[in-house]
Amino acid sequence: MRVYGNEEIVKALHQMVESGHIPHAMLFHQDDGGGAFPLVINFLEELYGGNPRVARLIHPDIHFVFPVAGADKPVSLQYIGPFRELLQDNPYFFENELYAAIGIEGKQSNISVNEARSILERLSLTAVEGGWRTVVMYLPEKMNAQAANALLKMVEEPPQQTLFLLITQAPEKVLVTISSRCLQLRVQPLSPEADAEVHAREAAGSVMLTDLFHDLLDAIVARDLLKALETGEAVADLKVREQQKSFCKLASEDLRRIFMLQKMQQLAQLPAGTEEYYRPMAQRLRPTFPRLGMEALDRSLLLIERNVNQKILFTTLVNQLYTIQNP
Hints:
With 327 residues, this protein is an alpha/beta fold. The chain contains 14 helices and five strands.
């Protein structure tokens, strides 16, 4: 993962690994959307000897913990798939993007005593690879007092080669019983240049997804089913599920623009320089296509959340869109 700035922290973490003197608990203070995760993952890659499973976020001895919500007392493990995808796709994600990725927007999230018990249970087991066992906790300020008390002894006197890495956005809200046991590191905000680069990468990803949808629409109006299916397969082959979800959302926004052009041109708000594409496409698509297409995309978005096979999902979506335009 690309680390921007924070050279002093990078150097300090490297020296810890080199010397073997590693604090058993560290608290990284970042701003929302900051660079703590790249620092932590790169540090763990070095600590675990360059094991590629660290960068892929699947090392069996590294446990990720983050706030969740639900009446059935869920724990982070139940959401680990979308969390990994979000972190791999954008390690500079914002807190609200996590909640959107795991489907708990608008709900009260926390790190509960049930989560603390899950952590203790996992740490009670011998390390799978016989080395370090690590807990990476995002937003420890969301940990309630009961959970903190359950973890306190483990954080205070952890077994040998057990490491806690906590990433907070509000260190003053982390319970003192926990924060006082940690080496505290302030992650400096991204420079304007680095922030621009991060957003440029995100924008490039959005352009790529939009181009894929435009390729799909072009194939559909040209009655080229084979080309349409090939485009759907390209979306299914996207490695990160968050990108597939973004594809559906961007496609819905495109169809909303086309709907407005077909029904209420004066209210259509088109991005600069896009009229040459959207206006001819609005004329070529059936009047029913935008509404029915958005319904199909919404269903696909729900099925992505339910881990339906991506090949089947996007083949079905392409067939539905093709049939709406070419009954």
